[in-house]
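ERR on first pass: missing label on line 2. Operator R.T. fixed the label and resubmitted. Corrected input:
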Amino acid sequence: MRDSTYKKWIGWEKLLMAGALLTLAVSCADLDEDPTKSRLAPGSYTNQAELELGVTGLYTQLNGMARMTTFVVSGWGGDDITTHKVSNKADFREYDQRVVSPLNARSASNWQNIYSTVRAANSVLANAKDLVLPDMNVQNRLIGEAYFLRGLIYFHLTRIHGRLPLQLQPDPIVDLPLASQAEVYQQIESDLKQAETLLPDVYPGVLEGAPRPNKGSAKAILARLYLDWGGFPAKDQSKYALAAAKAKEVLDNKATYHFALLPNLESLWTIANRFNSESVFTIAYNVSLNVPNQKFGKLGHPADLLGWQETFAEIRFFEDFPEGPRKEATYRTEYDWENFSDQANPVFKKIVGPPGDIPLDLFSTNRNDYYMRLAEVYLIYAEASGRAGTVTPAAWEALNAIRRRAAGKPFGTPDKTVDLTSGDIAELAYTERKWEFAGEYLRWADLVRMERVKEALSNRNPRVSKNKAGELLKEANPIIGSLETSNYFAPIPQNEVMLNPKLGQ
Amino acid sequence: MKEQHYSVGRYLFVLALLLCFGLARGQSKITGKVVDAKDNSGIPGVNIIIKGTSTGTVTDTDGNYSLNVPDNNAVIVFSFTGYTSQEVTVSGKSVIDINLEPSSKLLSEVVVVGYGTRKKSDLTGSVSQVGTKDFKDQPVTRLEEALQGRASGVLVSKSSGTPGGDIKVRIRGVNSITGNNQPLVVVDGIIGFTMSSVNPNDIESMEVLKDASATAIYGSRGSNGVILITTKKGTDKPRVDLDVFTGISTVPKYIPILGAADFARIENSRRARTGGSPVFTDSDIAALQASGGTDYQRALFRTGKTNNIQVSTSGKSGKVTYYVSGNYMKQDGIVITTGYTRISGRSNISMDINSKLKVGLNMFATRENRHNEVGGAGAGSPILQTLTWDPTTPIRNAQGGYNNYSLMALAHLAYNPIADMETRDLNRIDDKLNTNINLSYKILPSLNFTAVAGFGTTNSTNERYFTTPPLPYAYFNSDKSSGIQLSNILTYEKDFGKHNVKVTGLYEIQQGDYRGNSYSASNFLVPGGFYLAELAAGKQIGNDYSKSAIESFMGRAEYIYNNQFFVTGTVRRDKSSRFRDGNNVGIFPSVALAYNLSTLPFLSNTPVISNLKLRAGWGQVGNQDVAPYSTYPSVNISGGYPFDGSTLTPGSRPDGYGNPDLSWETTTQYNGGVDLGLFSNRVSVTLDVYKKNTTDLLLNVPVPNFAGGGSVYRNVGEVANHGIDLGIAGSVINTKDLRWDANISISKFRNKVVSLDGRSEIQGNFYNADGSGRPLNIIQKGQPLGQFYGETFLGTWKTAEADAALKLGAVPGDSKYLTDSAGNTILKAIGNGTPGFIWGFNNTITYKNFDVNILINGLGHYQIMNVTNGIIVGATGEQRSYMSPSQLNQWTPEHETDIPAGGQNRTASSRYVENGAFGRLSNVAIGYTFKKIKGIQSLKIYASGQNLLLITGFSGYDPESSDDGSSNDQASGVQVGTYPNPRTVTLGLKLGF
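pass 2 clean. output:
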């Protein structure tokens, strides 16, 4: 019995050894990697869905970067916006007081976001290079969007920093030099012109306000680009005529592009009306989908009203603001703001919303961004016509349409009480922009291009606003830095210069 | 893949059958008792091995044993720590009683060296051993705690004190700059465990392989050192052990924060300074003075409780030895609502099928649940938020609800951390199952084949529910990884006269895959809890999958001449899936020599020196630890965009750049050592000196933001480490009633970045929590890893400097930092957080029935960047007010101190760099053992305290903590809202019957 058990075991052992030898003989480790099981394939696109994903990804990044005030931090340089004196708003105060440090975190983060999106746009354009879709209309408009967005964000960034390194390939070049201002503008112009060619008159299946851009959106941004190009720092006066011409193309075809001024300014800044025809390019948001707009609501109120004290209105600008419906639509004039205990500054209705529209304790809202309003195209047309010396009755009519609406009148009906027909139309339109776009983070760029920073910021002390103790209020954050052109552009983030010293030259 | 599953499956099947039908044929059996030659008391746990085999047993608690021997010529070796080994030939005897001489022959122990064992006296490499006996007097809940201070060259530091939190273990410094520096953990031959998942009560011994001649057998995974863990096995006589302890934990100190009234006064003065109006009236302040406001720190911490119960049974029944254990541990953390529970079970079964074949099955299963874990330091740390939350806002409002935010928008912006902790519901549940089948077959007396087949799976699910206003949200992720390992080991060992030769050959494959699934659910329409996530308005999903494999051959040759001269040579060849063809094969050689001088005549006659051995070794090991698919560029699917404002369309974006040329990081190490035994080895000294160079570093090189940002892995650069490890162990007092054993370990090392591929520095990737968007760390050529990067603080601008201050936008009383001539702030290295000195002093004193254990350990030669303090000081990032009591002495025109009253507070500045050196009373335990109780083999009760005393100049909670996680070292020493290490007092009972 014992022996037979033993023999049986010998049999098992042989089998076992055979099994062991088998594993020795067969190389069984799978040593080839195949990342495509869980990831999208990098490289060239082969179908429409891949291109659509890539393009939508650009919007996702745009939404992510435009969500917070970081995106518009240079707007605090204007004479319309200020911030809290002491709270954690140092990055904004640096812009407000004209001492922007190379360590400014908002600049650094905005720079990073924009270039990350530039990389993605470069990658979409490179990956789509050899793609031929059955429906060329689809392909053209998707590629047109990629060009539009790359041009748009480069333009956004050059307005803050001036000269930039131009990254145009998906593979990173880590030692790029700074391009000249003209080269930067030319690149933006080239992208926007591609977009103008490729985009349709109206993007199919979208809501009002061009949440996906059309030909008219590209032309409008081009008009803004040319207006800047005519001024500081490039000062290429020939661009004013181009600005006027592009603006006119938009105005003449506004119905084609589904653009129209809203009759009533008050209705622009409500959540209910966030998709409207006045916007020539809209960035959309949604709180419940975790893609909220975090620039509004609570950020515009002082602590007296549970606010986070970020975006306050300048007192002097408020005092100078012409009375009327436009002022009412711009500010919460019903507040006893002179006696706020946290900080006495007026509150922008454009930021906190009309009464009841945004609960006091919210800063995440469904508000959309009107990246550019048709009203700006009207005023570009008027101003650029004046600067180019090609003033026409249509240019006056464009200026007057905005003035009539500001006065609470129908914008299409001539009205002798508000209409202007003589004077320096360029300067009149320039001033009209000041009031029309107050609190929309646009004023700083106007001051820069016309070299009027010193003029606008030298005297911001309140004239008449007093608290209940009868004391004249003071400007919140006095100017500390230089108001000369050498201090117009924000320094390139210090980290970037450290990683590529060519950016410091 | 198919073939492989098939072959492995069959292999396992065969083994399973063996286990099921295991029968053994009889052999001759001997029994006996092993006693102490001095007092004739039985010695438990004596190792009994048939020479030249791995067959053996150990004595039971009374010193009795029984053993089957194959034949009359078998030689039986009896060995035990502190006794001289004896060899006896069976020669027909059936009873062999042994008197062991207690000569403190520490060197006869057997040491596990990976793919085999070796006598400690024959070692050529640098190996530290920590056995149960070394930590049995400390109630350890984590394996790492057993290593701390007890093995030279090993750094153990808790990243945070959170229950079940990460613990950093480093062997001989740090090699990799951005790669993983955790040592490789091998449990019973299976590679790649996390130490946290092993129940320390199941551990028989741990061996730490330190030099490359010892670790090279693990090739591409050996560069961080290797920890080999052997779990317990059954002994002859059945026994049941019960080990119960219960403890309470407290936070050892509170960080001083401004009281509510002072806070209000400082806030008013801060506002007045810039022309603002006060936010608190005098009567407000008087009221706060009277009420004291709310102390959020004391609201967050509580007394924690720990309960641990371990039951095990072990023994031998016929041919089967077994060890079966179960463990339940429950810890309530020192932060409200936090907790950790662990349930684990182990079954180690081993069968002698016959004289040639031995089969074992080890199974281990565990479930861990971390509840409301306060993990992740940085801006989101509840500790940090608590330390900086507005003391003038009560936790609850008059209606009984929470005050969600500061009522005056002061101090920290975050959601009320007490409300957060009390209403969140987070559960991280880790389930692990490991099965390890091992088989040993003696083909010839000198030739042995061993196979180890292991299968392990880990399911980690993370369920998180937060109530942060306005609406609750939930997050879920599940990470499932599984791996198989198959090792085939052939060992040949034979004596040829004075020559002993041992050759080991290995073929091994290891393969694993990972599956990750997650969803987030935001804006609950109806608040309710994690399981109502279906009601969330916003939902997102995420998925990931990856797999990796490694295939290896290893050969090792050991040669001994006359027990005097020892040589070991090894070579391992690894082929890894993580790299592309042409870069995926690595060859890792090593050689080591040892010479035993104690046999030489001039030493053997010396009474003082009982042992003297010199060792030297060289070897190369690798690090392949990059994520799978790192050689490929990647495209991510990103959240999506609401074109219509109400539905999301998914989008993609480029992510990783991919580097097809990626390959191993290689560490070349030289080691020289001396083993010295004095006074019949009553004192033993081990001294090792090493130097290692790591080349082709797997460096995560940052890509500038304008080029797309992020980082890309490249094989660039070189890091050097050199150091000394010293271990001294000895019996200070050794009398019949009183015995004092002491063990000292001291390690000193220096780390230096030798080259960075032509660059002088590379920015790190540990970003500050103050929203500055800048890394806190930098890697600089010529400097050690762990450099802090930031501003140099120069105190305050004085009234006399008003003009100079104004040029930089500052006024007197504002903070002042070092600037260049153009007025730009200079950023540079301002400290270093890599400890360069580790020490430990472990004492066990036995007096009659009492025993006492005292463990003291510490770290030195490093600094801490105390960002926590920077944020407490405040006016930075999301913390808008001053909160530090130092502010009571802030600058005034009359009293111009260097505590700024305004200006930028840069939290990554030299102002917050502190010395980290510390010494800690880690463990004090006193126990009493009851002897000779009927029906009970052993009974011991004990009381102990951990972390009772900390001596340091550091101002934060604990200098040992670091927020860079357990695997990485480039931001070592950075603290941003770290969870403090608790102080614990424990009562316990150990019962054996």
